[in-house]
Write a structure and sequence with these properties.
- The chain is built from five helices and two strands, in the order H-H-H-H-H-E-E.
- The chain is an all-alpha fold and 160 residues long.
- It has a domain of 102 residues.
- The longest helix is centred in the C-terminal third of the chain and has 40 residues.
Amino acid sequence: MSTDLHVLLAQYMPALVLLAVVVSLAYGLFFSMIGVPYGLLLAAVAFPLEFIPMVGPLAGAVIVLLVAGLSGSPHLLAIFAFLVTFRFFQDYVASPHLLSAGMKLHPLLVIFGVLAGASIAGVGGCFLSVPVLATLRIVYRQLLAKAPPAVVAPDGAATQ
């Protein structure tokens, strides 16, 4: 079981880094295309903020909008629309699929697990929800493998 946990964590951390790289690249590309001042710097700032669930992406968006607004960018509405659209895609499509692939969990379970983790333990619960779900899956599979097989009686009732 400990080998399974090591593999689980070995797959979880690179998935988080990959998600942060995708955010940084998407931000950098979009900001460069529309001419946001300090666009590449803002994309670089978004990278480490991706590791802080919920609060980090929100802080990154606020920083981007503040810098763009204070530097006189005429594209604030386009930036806002991009950030909202990208966050929706990142949080409800890319992240669940990427994290579920390594953890062998259904993407919908990942979404509900993160929401439940946020309700139970806030930001820390969001961050730990996927590894906890995957760990529970490993424990369940280990217990299932050790359970004695059910014996079916002649009348069709299962007995142990």
